[in-house]
Amino acid sequence: MANLKWWKIAAIVLVLYTIIAGFLMPVPTLPILHESIRNLYFHVTMWFAMIIILAVSVVHGVKFLNKGQRYNDIVSSEAAKVGILLGILGTTTGSLWANNTWGAWWVNDPKLNGAAISLLFYFAYLILRSALPDEDKRARVSAIYNIFAFTMMLVFIGVLPRMTDSLHPGNGGNPGFGGYDLDGNMKMIFYPAIIGWSLLAVWILSLRVGFKVLVEKIQNN
Amino acid sequence: MKKNILLLFFALLAAIAEGFAQNVEMADGLRSSGKIYVVVGVLCIIFIGIVVYLINLDRKLAQLKKEVEQLKN
After folding, report:
1. Does residue A5 lie in a domain region?
2. How many domains in chain B?
3. For residue A214, is it within any domain?
4. Is the CB of B8 inside 8 Å of chain A's CB atoms?
5. Distance to chain B for A183, nearest Cα, Å
6. Domain limits for position B34
7. Using the beta-carbon criterion (under 8 Å), do B26 and A217 form an inter-chain contact?
8. This prediction's pTM
């Protein structure tokens, strides 16, 4: 049990709390949304975790550019993969939610299209990596592309949807979710949920990095 | 007089419609009957299963790391 660090225990406890309290605690009664407002603890947190893990990816990319450590490149690429997983989960859960509240699996909403474009940027990141056989060149080129992809992701899902009309709360004159949960009950679950899911993503990332480091060690021997 | 009654009727109709519009359907019945706990339980079991799986992977990886270190020496 030496591997069970405090933050892994925190991840388990926080996500368990999210599942239990997220279903059983009272939520505001709103038309259209009904009980599906509880998706805030599961769908929205996927995107928060994705942004955090992709930030880890770009930070390690910049670190690689500074110091040239192989380890930083491994963390950067594995974090991008975990981020893509979270992005796919966010898109599919959002699609299901949209079908039951907005009436279609995919609506022409700037936030949805922005999220799709951002995912494409990161798919391109993986393709770019696999296209460069030289290890050092691959690490440098993909780290630079990572900075571009991360910036564009923030613009496409954080900035542009706020400048036009969007169905998502907090965009285009719509009040954010903060405007809905007047009783603060949801915040008590939402914020721990973000931390819990993000820590879980970091855990998966640490497993991927550990595996990749071992593979390279064996290959170099 | 007839006009007034008609107006009153429509006002009443509007009020009733308003009342229906405000009535947001929530899963109160599900919760009061206790069945929602079953779903929460199922989700908890699935999540704990995933956590056990992650812990197992973690342990296996640490063990493998040790073995690789020993091979190097």
Report:
1. no
2. 1
3. yes
4. no
5. 17
6. 2-72
7. no
8. 0.83
A153: Cβ contacts below 8 Å, ≥ 6 apart: A51, A54, A118, A121, A122
Q: Could you read off the pLDDT of A62-104 as tens digits, one per residue?
A: 999 999 999 999 999 999 999 999 999 999 999 999 998 888 9
A148 sits in which H/E element: helix A135-154
Q: What integer pLDDT is reported at residue B35 of this predicted model?
A: 72
Q: Per the domain annotation, does A26 fall within a domain?
A: no
Distance CA A184, CA A190 (A): 10
Contact A203 B64 (CB under 8 A): no
B43 with A203: Cβ contact below 8 A: no
Domain count, chain A: 1
Angle at A195 between CA A173 and CA A182, to 5 degrees: 40
| Contact between residue B39 and residue A20 where contact means Cβ atoms under 8 Å apart | no
- What are the φ and ψ backbone dihedral angles of A208, each rounded to 5 degrees? -65, -45
| Owning domain of residue A197 | 38-220
Determine, yes or no, domain membership for A12.
no
Output the six-digit token pair for B69.
């270190």
In this structure, what DSSP letter does residue A176 have? P
> For residue A89, how many other CB atoms are within 10 A of its CB?
17
- With tokens 């997220």, the residue in question is A22
Residue of B nearest to A25 (CA): B31
Look at residue B25 and give its three-state secondary structure: coil
Tens digits of residue pLDDT in A149-204? 999 999 999 888 878 777 787 665 555 555 555 467 888 899 999 999 999 999 99
- Find how far residue A163's CA is from the centre of its chain: 22
Count other C-beta atoms under 10 Å from residue A19's C-beta: 24
